[in-house]
Amino acid sequence: MKTERNILTDEKWNAIIHNDASYDGTFYYAVKTTGIFCRPSCKSRVPNKKNVLVFDTADAALERNFRPCKRCRPNGLRLPDEEWIAQITEYIDSHYHESLTLSVLADMCHGSPYHLQRTFKKIRGLSPIEYIQIKRLTKAEHLLLYTDKTVMEIALTVGIPNTAHFATLFKKRTGSSPTAYRKTAGKGRGEIHYE
């Protein structure tokens, strides 16, 4: 049963949206959609109020499987780099079709763009943007082989709104245009069954 202390009151919400450091240590807030918890003074983007849970202690948030914020380090806790990058990779895998920039990812994961870029490259061996591009183009290959969507529809589906740019990226990765890939790779796979 929730006590008054664990309810997101207007006072606590105002502390969160105004990054009020005077509330640090009195409560922590977690964001259900990111799985991260913060101090009230955290400078991260203001979350959607309906996704916020309030905890008396950092340990209580940890017990509910929330991870400490990389930016504000609640109670001095730190998220290991490997786990942080795995969390970001999972987010990319689920949202690759959206407009993802280094700034958007850094904001979402409560880190700076520079630190995210450097840490992601150290752990994964490529930049976050390179990873997003590979994810998008791999999905495009699948869509070219197993659907009857046009090249333009596929480009939009994987998050690359400019068809000419999509074709250039695709050719750089595969060595052929999307249309040629569909014809030649489809023949090598036998009859294509559209989904």
Automatic annotation (TrEMBL):
**Cofactor list:** Zn(2+)
Instruction: Give the protein's recorded name.
Output: Methylphosphotriester-DNA alkyltransferase and transcriptional regulator (AraC/XylS family)
Instruction: Please state the Enzyme Commission number of this protein.
Output: 2.1.1.63
- Please provide the record's keywords in A-Z order: Activator, DNA damage, DNA repair, DNA-binding, Metal-binding, Methyltransferase, Transcription, Transcription regulation, Transferase, Zinc
Residue ranges of the region described as Disordered: 176-195
What high-level taxonomic lineage is stated for the organism? Bacteria, Bacillati, Bacillota, Bacilli, Bacillales
Please list the GO biological process terms of this entry: DNA alkylation repair; methylation
Q: Where is the HTH araC/xylS-type domain?
A: 86-184
Show the GO MF annotations. Answer: DNA-binding transcription factor activity; methylated-DNA-[protein]-cysteine S-methyltransferase activity; sequence-specific DNA binding; zinc ion binding
Q: Which PROSITE patterns match?
A: HTH_ARAC_FAMILY_1, HTH_ARAC_FAMILY_2
Matching Pfam families, A to Z? Ada_Zn_binding (PF02805), HTH_18 (PF12833)
Alphabetical list of Gene3D superfamilies matching this protein: DNA Methylphosphotriester Repair Domain (3.40.10.10), Homeodomain-like (1.10.10.60)
